[in-house]
């Protein structure tokens, strides 16, 4: 059911666009690797779910989005936040539970949001986001602002009624929405090859009258191309699309997960499939960017993440007065 | 200028006036237009009990029928509220909260707090509540306590047409998520309602009956349809020389605790009437608050008149037993008044 391409193919990305994409993916990777280390050190409270390995999805989709557009995320939401432009200093402080955090320390890893950036929040409820995205898409359609809303959700959420109802509603209302199913192979510890009754999540699109596409989630360019087409169609009033992005997460369901259920796919993916490695090889071999340009980004990102961690550790925690504030606008 | 209209018409008028005033107000729900996609009339129903009738034609594109997918469309109303609209979504019966509650209590209610005060979610969820229509266990509940329990939600439950209009207008203008509970047995009741627009503030109880010269023997707190039962009981009791002050909180969240405490401090006795199931209900909530904050004023144990700890039964012989009535309320008042320590 996929139509013809209506956006430039990935080969036509400008050097600046390629640098931006690489910076987003590198920032996500460094952010997550650093959270992994810091969590192991015992400094981070609660639980965190890391997005490392999945960077191409958030970066490839969000590269097409602007201020009009909104996304909803999952419990594995750090990557989506970064790709939608949420400040990493505020994010890191939030994960540390500090008053300088994106949500003033009252949300934490699973609820980082920045509505001013169109980031509707990581979400602690599996399948929580798709209905909200129908609403954001409806608001854009009603206002005629050209905005598109994107729901990221996992293979686990693909089995939730909220998601299936939302796919149906999006077509019935012809909403400017895109549904991105990030199939990393496991809902917590349960394999998607067992829990998803259809061969592929994308197969379900046909039942809801929308195009469904499967994309190699380790390939930024593949995601970028599929997302570009879906987002352009949504923006032009052509309705929703379901994109299934397939890859593997590099860490457990949450930090501390012993991952006894897993095979050896992570080592293989890191070695052969990694989105950052493949991106670097493709753009340097194609002569679009130099290794030095990418190295410079690596260095800048490392410095920024160091600074974010240092700032988070130095920041104050919320005070007693903060317990009772911001329950209501007025009460 | 006021004229007599029904509770149903009052809500419809509030919706129409707010839609007229504010482009951002949209209405959605199952059969809210009624007939979408069918060969006959496009405004066939106006909601299952006709509350939104006529809005579809007056406000093109702003009254949306939905599939029977409460999770998706209640969630969509919430998402649209974060995107600059002011949606009024109809969750047909309050009993159906079970199929979409996550979107209400984990999403809408928590955004503002969880996101550090940076979210505004001005959504109204209209829903029908209460027993009496022989609608049986899954269409008759009084689940206000469940919503009242959740921080971040506001809950309104008007007892008459005047309050219904004013509270609906206030709900739509409110920047927080509101559960607007319409008692199904009140839709055809009438009251004097001004034609012009007006808002009734949340958290302001209505003292619907005072004792003569401001002196009463007992305070009765009741909400929704129970206000009418309480008034009926109060008239009967007056005949035997017992004067009751009847308070309708109108909203359970926020709850006007001050008006209740002030009344109990004057009367020394409290009867709370609530057609919800008895445990963790408005009745127990008001009783606990008064026991804690006005203990010294009490001259008798607080009396609770509620439904039993059962589902709502179907057969009229049983449903009539389930629902608190004027006789039960009068009996509770007599127990309090006759109490000897």
Topology (SSEs and partners):
The complex is a heterodimer of chains A (331) and B (341).
Chain A: H1 15-40, H2 55-62, E1 70-72, H3 78-83, H4 88-95, H5 129-143, E2 149-154, H6 161-172, E3 177-183, E4 186-187, E5 190-191, H7 192-195, E6 212-216, H8 220-235, E7 241-246, H9 265-273, H10 275-285, H11 291-314
Parallel strand pairs in A: 1-2, 2-3, 3-7, 6-7
Antiparallel strand pairs in A: 4-5
Helix pairs in contact in A: 1-2, 1-10, 1-11, 2-8, 4-11, 5-6
Chain B: E1 2-6, H1 7-21, E2 25-29, H2 55-58, E3 63-65, H3 70-82, E4 86-93, H4 101-108, H5 111-114, E5 124-129, H6 144-148, E6 154-156, H7 161-173, E7 178-183, E8 190-194, E9 206-209, E10 218-222, H8 226-239, E11 244-248, E12 251-253, H9 257-267, E13 270-274, H10 282-293, E14 303-306, H11 316-322, H12 326-337
Parallel strand pairs in B: 2-3, 2-4, 4-5, 5-7, 6-7, 10-11, 10-13, 13-14
Antiparallel strand pairs in B: 1-8, 6-12, 9-11
Helix pairs in contact in B: 1-7, 3-4, 8-12, 9-10
